Amino acid sequence: MARELFTARLLRKECISESSQCYHFVFSVEDHESFPFAPGQFMSALAQDPNGKQQTRAYSIASAPHANQFELCVNRVDNGFFSNHLADLTDLPPGGAIQVHGPHGHFTLREPVTDSILISTGTGIAPMRGFAQWLFPKDGPDRSQGKDIWMVYGTRHETELYYREEFEELAARHPNFHYLPTLSRAGEDWKGLRGYVQEHVARIVEERAARLGLTLPTPEPDPAIPAAELKFDIHAYICGLNNMVAGVRECLAGYGWHRKQIVFERYD
């Protein structure tokens, strides 16, 4: 069955990190007053390369649903056709359009909302931004239900902390939202966390368990309960390169976490 194609018109583009050539895009879907999707899903974009071959790339949506709009966060890649096609003003100026289909994917928040650790590196922050916007909307009721939401974001340098001000402001407004950026190649002036995301995720899990009087590793769920009916009081959502995803999954499995508590998406 052919997928329905939409025309997505570029409203705005902005380079949000010169050092990593990361761009933020805002698109509107033509001929639609609304464009529903679940935070965390992705869109597939289509375009013809210079050889006339149609290329397709999947990009996580970097926003929560709003009217007929969706947003993307894309790193420009050396000699990469699609990222350059999006980033270059000559190829896609404001007002220009691309063809897309979607939304797709099952990397979405599990219901009901639980304490959650949002773990990402690089442009893996895109779906996490969608989660955060949905849980803590600027105009609308708080959907977090008072649950603790930790956002652990790892990158190399301070200049690569995408959406930093937005998340810092969110943490200032909501005491149950904890923004934890960590740098693997931090300069001497950096006062925040250092190292890789795994070690900070481990600290969150251990400190939470101690606060709640829980024993680690957690006991295995009752095998008599069907997997679809299992209930958990915390989830982890992971998005990034495979090595990071695998490392965090291994870390959490070591604490006795069930695989259904760990929701992940890899982009390599």
List keywords for this structure.
single chain, 268 residues, Elongation Factor Tu (Ef-tu), domain 3, Rossmann fold, 6-stranded parallel sheet, 5 helices, 31% strand, globular
List the SSEs and their pairings:
Layout: E1 6-17, E2 22-29, E3 42-48, E4 54-60, E5 69-75, H1 81-87, E6 97-104, E7 115-121, H2 125-135, E8 149-155, H3 164-173, E9 177-183, E10 193-194, H4 197-212, E11 234-240, H5 242-254, E12 262-266
Parallel strand pairs: 7-8, 7-11, 8-9, 9-10, 11-12
Antiparallel strand pairs: 1-2, 1-6, 2-5, 3-4, 3-6
Number of domains: 2
* CATH topology assignment of the largest domain: Rossmann fold
Distance between the termini: 27 Å
Helix content, binned percent: 10-25%
Looking at CATH, the homologous superfamily of the largest domain is Nucleotide-binding domain of ferredoxin-NADP reductase (FNR) module
Low-confidence stretches: none
Q: If helices are DSSP runs of H or I spanning 4 or more residues, what is the number of helices? A: 5
CATH secondary-structure class of the largest domain = Alpha Beta
The tally of strands reads 12
Nearest-integer average pLDDT: 96
